[in-house]
Structure formats: structure tokens, C-alpha cells
Amino acid sequence: MIVRLLEIFGSLGLFLYGMRTMSDGIQKAAGERLQTILGYMTGNRFAGVLTGFGTTALIQSSSATTVMVVSFVNAGLLSLSQAIGVIMGANIGTTVTGWIVALFGFKFDITAVALPAIGIGLPLIFWKRLRKTEWGEALIGFGLLFLGLSFLKSLVPDIDAHPESLEFVKTLTGYGLFSRLLFILIGTTLTVILQSSSASMAITLTMAFSGWIDFPNAVAMVLGENIGTTVTAVLASVGADIHARRAAAAHMLFNILGIVWVQFLFFPIIALVDSIVPGSYTTSAGITAHLAMFHTTFNVLNTTVFLPFVNWIEALVKFIVPVREEGEETRRYQLSFFSGSIQETPELNLLRAKTEIIKMTQIVQDMYHSFLYVFHHPEKKLKEEVAELQEQEELTDQMQEELSKFLAQCAMENLKEKSAENVSYMMRIVHELESVGDSCFNLLLLSKRRYDKDLHISDEALQDLEPYLATVDQYLSFVTTHTNRHLSSDEMAQAVALEEKVDQYRNTLQKAARRRIKLGSDVKAELLYIDIVRHIEKIGDHLLNIAQALRQIR
Description:
Layout: H1 2-38, H2 45-59, H3 62-74, H4 80-93, H5 95-105, H6 110-126, H7 133-155, H8 163-173, H9 177-194, H10 197-209, H11 215-237, H12 242-264, H13 266-276, H14 284-306, H15 310-320, H16 346-376, H17 383-411, H18 417-452, H19 459-481, H20 489-518, H21 523-552
């Protein structure tokens, strides 16, 4: 008995390892396209659902999709209501795994599919010149997944061969709604323990195929698995920021509400599924396809029912998950590796880092604009402005530290060669952005000194400074627009031209300030003016370094 249990656990382990390897390979192959796909999140709700479905179906991991959604919300690129739409789509996308297992794992000789997949994948991994190692990983994962399923099928005997077990199962299935709730609980518990709804679905399909549970109770287990997969996300979000907790809570709330209403239409939906799928769910040959169809039908109907009420769900989630402390909801930064049921690959962690770099670039640009406002309004008291800019400067310091550690962790993982090279360039960009933030804060302090010391700079000198300020603003906008994107030769030439223009302005303005000193102008005011010119030029230097790094990113 113990040996049989260990064999079952071993087959599950092989299934899970195959699932993860396949998911990792697909994510590596599609990683560079994911940001384009996820860009559609910001569209309407329907577009968000399609994005969630497409992304999850592609990478075979709803956990990874949810993590990316949270990072987009955290970066301010998605609202919570938009994120809920994407999560709804991810629920539908995760049913694709059930279809793959149901159609290939129980309809054909699995080894006829699994072994050739491994045979094709192996040379793709070792033949580096083909540059298709990620597809090799995906094929090997595909093969291992079905080998694990094959072992699982062979280790779960037909129920007819164990009449004593049949009697025990009957004691669990004869209590109507109570039995259904019991199997929902079993499905939830199983998924929480395994931390994989795909593995739970494989077990459910195997038990149904072998006759251990009938179709209605197998359906109840599938419903429970929909709750279980959200429990793991909720547990993973404990201690995380407000956006992660609310996204996880929204996922759980959405699934629980769906399971509640489906109880009132349980048998009509089963009849609907039976009318769609050929064959009967009372036979081994038909029950797996019926279960996969129910899983899809439930999630599609649940999304259809609740999609118009996303704003209500958002309000309810904000009530259930309140802000823990003042300022938490608007706190603009928290970044950590996610420990979900199937941890996302480093490629997706890089995507998360890119969203944070975009956010950091926008913060730095806001800091420069704050300096410009203060500089153009010298008559204003600067206490609030200094406090706000100091907070932003501390934030960029924290982001530089945390992002550098995060990227260093990514670099230690199994990255594609191109992605590994990109990590070093991304770290350089983060460092340069932090330096731009420091320069912006120093410029604000210089403006404050001008106000505090009542240093007078002539209108002519200030007017001469305007094109210089505008050029750096243009340069910063250029870098912000092109963040995380490879610069073409023409774009790099444009960046170099802007830097040369900044240097020319610096030389001209510093010479003019020295000339005014010789003519008897206020020395302290002119030295302050030269300091301002120097710090602005430093920003140009940092922006050129960022452009050079972007030129190298592929």
C-alpha cells in the first residue's frame, strides 16, 4: 500500500515537473511577445478577458498571469477593475490544460505522443546552433507531463476490481447537496495541498475515467479546484502590498460567487454540457471530455454573468481588503519574487522588472517637471515642494536598490542568452535613473537656496537658460518614450545629437556666467547659476548612458 502511494506521488511529481518544464519553455519562447500581448489589458473589459485567456492558454499558468497583472496594477498601468477582467479571462484560459489532458491523455496511447515529443525536444536543447532550446524544453515538458499521466492512470485501478472500495465511495455520493459540497471541499483541499489546479484536474479526470466517482461529483471536485487555485494565490499575497492582496481576493471572490450561483442551476448546466459533447458522461470514454467541457462552460458562464458588474466586485473587494495603514493604497513601490503554485519563469520576472523601470522613468520625469515648476516660481515658499521631491528621491533610491537585487536574482536563474545580456543593461538603466533623480533633487535644493538667500539672477540669464531646460526635458521625454525598447541607429543618433546640444548649451551658459562675474555681477548668484547648469548637464550625461544601454537591449 505504501509503495503504491509513493508510486502515485511519483507519477504526480512527474506530471507537475512536466507541466512546469513545458510552461517554462513556452514562456521563454513567448516572453518577448508577452509585453505586446499584455498591452491590450488597458483596453475595455472584453479586451482584458481576451488578453487573460490568450496569455494563460499560451503560457499554461494562471498563477503567472495573475502575478503579471498584479505587477501592472502596482506600476499604475492597470486599474483593479481592468485587472479583474484579465483574471476572469485567465480562469477561462486555464481550462485549456484540462482539454489537453482529456483529449490526449485518455483518448490515445500516451506513450505514442510523449516519447516522440521527448525525442524531438532533446536535440533542440543540446544543439545550441539552432537557438531553439526553449522549444526543446517545452516538448520535453509535454512528454513528461503525459508520461506522468500514463503512470497515474495505470496506478489507479478500475473501481469494479475493488467492490469494497465501491461501497465506500457510494457512502459519500448518496446525500445530494451534502455530497456535492463534500466533493467541492475535497477538490479545494486537493488543489491547496498540490498547489496546482492542473494536477488536481488530472487526478479528477483519472478517478472519473476509472469509475471511482460519477460525473456530478467529479464536476463538484472541479468546482472545488477553482476555489483551491485562488487559496494558494491568497496565501502567497499575505504580507504583499495592497494591490496583490486585492487582486488575489478578487480572484477568490469571483470564483466563490460563481460556485454559489451554479448550485441553483447545477443539473441544467450538466444537461447543457451533455447536449454539447458527443457520447455519454456515464462511460469512461465520454466522461473526461464532458468534465473538460463543464470546466470551460462554467468559467465562460461565470465571466458572462459577472463581467458587467466588475465595478461592484471592485468596490466589494476594497471593502473586504481595506487599507492597513495611511498611505498604503498610494504607496508606489513594492517588488518581490512571487511564490505561487507554479512559480513564473525568470522571463516573466524580467517583464515585471520592465514595468517597474517604466514606472521609475515616469517618476524621474515628474521630478524634473517639479523642479521646472519651482524654478519658474521663485516667489513661492518651497517647503511642500521640497518634502514631495525628497519623498520621490527616496523612492527612486529604494527602487534602485530593490530592482538591482531583483535583477540579480533573475540573472542567477535559467535565462535565455539574450535575456541574460539584457539584465546587465537593465541594471545600468536603473542606476542611471536613480542618478537622474538625485540630480533633480539637487536642482530643487539649489532653487531653494536661491529663494532662501534671496540671490538675484538677471532676467537675461534666466531667459538664456530656457532652451537648455527645454532640451533636457525633450531628452528625458525621448528616453521615457523608448524605455525598455531597442534603439535603432537613427534613434541612437538622435540621442547623441541631444547630448551634444546639451553640452553646447552648458559651455555657452557657463562662459556667460563667468563673463558676468568679471563685469561685477553677484558672485554667489552666478556660482549658483553655474551649479544649476552643471547639474542639468549631468542629467544629460545619465540620459546618454541610458540610451547606450537601450541600444544594446535586444
